[in-house]
Amino acid sequence: MRSPESGKLSFEQDIKPLFRTKDRDAMLARFDLFEHADVAEHADAIIGSLLSGHMPCDGAWPEAHLEKLQRWIDMGKPA
Q: What pTM was estimated for this model as a whole?
């Protein structure tokens, strides 16, 4: 379990919960938003689509979600 002070993020605890089932279903033809390996491989495209407003289709992510995903990417996309 991570401590809030450490600032460490994990895919299962911090990143996967950012994606809804309907987001996953919409992207399953290309990759699985609930799988660490897929999100890590496509992280740059995912953050780019989120920042440009192309994803998700029903509205922008909160800034805190975007910042968390970017921090996770910057940390090397840990599992």
A: 0.88
